[in-house]
Automatic annotation (TrEMBL):
Transmembrane segments: none annotated. This is UDP-glucuronosyltransferase. The lineage of its organism: Eukaryota, Metazoa, Placozoa, Uniplacotomia, Trichoplacea. GO terms for molecular function: UDP-glycosyltransferase activity. Belongs to the UDP-glycosyltransferase family. InterPro entries: UDP-glycosyltransferase, UDP_glucos_trans. Pfam families: UDPGT. Keywords: Glycosyltransferase, Transferase.
Length: 372
């Protein structure tokens, strides 16, 4: 209310133009003249000269001239009025807003809540999709082997006759389990087999410093934006780096070997391996524990956070956040793992515990399935 548009102060009736311009204007005869100007400072880009529409100019001209008095008179009139009258009632209500409205705190809080809700809904949808996939797979298996066709996947999960878990309390938190749940041990762990010749030569060429294995599992990868950080960190290490990745790593350092696949269990069992940088999948955690290899965990999903947390609690791992990685952090973490015997000592103890069983996990699986 306290803002008034009084009109353009520079607009006045036209005065005679210089002779050369007058001659130019008159020479246009009935077609007239188009005036083109971008003001005192600006110019059209040289690459493109836009078309100016005469109709718009005429419309704007009529609008500006349609006023009861010239802008200069309106300016004087309003100055006189404001000087001699109380105009506080024209003050906008917005100037008296509370601070939380002035700084949009309520809008920010609402926006954060909406974003949080979107993430939660996305997580729920993801869980729903995964559940449906598992339900479909379980249904297929149930149909093929005629396993309780009267029960759905969810009902079957709630009422199993026996649950066999491919795990070991050596790298898990102590907790009570029901009588129909048996930890049979990690199924993927086994004594190491000889490596292919190229990998064996690479491992042996590492000398006394050994090798660092880097793998984010079968599904996950580091973001491509992290490649320069990882490469810079790996380049500074004394160890050689065996990096399983499908990323396009250009010009890797001399101490880095890129592979798209490798026999992980066999490499973890190689005497030259010093550290395993992993995303923290259960299979990777158990294979490293079986062979006594300390870990540097960079989790991506929720259960990987839990797995790395268990490994840290057992004193066999260092946990890092993917978004906080720097070359210095990578070097410091590898140095800490390789020079502090505490990690290797704890992992050796866990390795002995996992391997100390009368029958292998696969034999235990068959034994329990046959028994049930």
């Amino acid at each position: 209310p306290n803002m008034k548009l009084i009109g353009s102060l520079s607009s006045v009736s036209a005065s005679p133009v210089p002779e050369d311009l007058e001659n130019f204007m008159e020479s246009s005869r009935e077609r007239g003249v188009v005036l083109v100007s971008m003001g005192t400072i600006f110019e059209f880009p040289e690459s493109s000269i836009p078309t100016l529409l005469a109709e718009n100019a005429i419309r704007i001209s009529k609008r500006m001239q349609s006023r009861p008095k010239p802008p200069s008179e309106a300016l004087v009139q309003w100055i006189e009025y404001v000087t001699h009258n109380d105009v506080s009632h024209l003050k906008p209500e917005g100037l008296d807003m509370p601070w939380y409205q002035y700084y949009l705190v309520d809008v920010i809080v609402s926006s954060v809540f909406c974003i949080y809700s979107i993430f939660k809904i996305s997580a729920c949808l993801k869980e729903l999709v995964m559940f449906n996939v598992m339900n479909y797979l379980a249904y297929s298996i149930k149909q093929e082997f005629n396993i309780r066709p009267d029960l759905g996947f969810y009902e079957l999960m709630l009422s199993p006759e026996m649950t066999l878990v491919a795990g070991d309390f050596a790298v898990d938190y102590a907790r009570p389990i029901p009588p129909n749940m048996k930890l049979i041990g990690p199924l993927s762990c086994a004594p190491a087999s000889p490596l292919p010749e190229d990998l064996e030569n690479f491992m042996e060429s590492s000398g006394e410093h050994g090798v660092v294995l880097v793998s984010m599992g079968t599904i996950f990868e580091f973001p491509e934006s992290l490649i320069p950080t990882l490469v810079a960190g790996f380049k500074r290490l004394e160890q050689k780096i065996l990096w399983k990745t499908k990323l396009n790593v250009k010009n890797p350092p001399d101490n880095v070997k890129i592979v798209r696949w490798m026999p992980q269990n066999d490499i973890l069992g190689h005497p030259k391996l010093r550290v395993f940088i992993t995303h923290g999948g259960s299979k990777s955690i158990y294979e490293a524990s079986y062979h006594g290899v300390p870990l540097i965990g960079i989790p991506i999903q929720a259960e990987q956070q839990l797995n790395i947390g268990k490994a840290k609690a057992a004193g066999v791992a260092i946990g890092l956040e993917r978004n906080d990685l720097t070359p210095d952090i990578i070097v410091e973490s590898v140095t800490e793992i390789t020079t502090n015997p505490w990690y290797k000592g704890n992992m050796s103890r866990i390795s002995k515990s996992i391997q100390s069983r009368p029958i292998s996990p696969r034999e235990a699986l068959v034994q329990w399935v046959e028994y049930i």
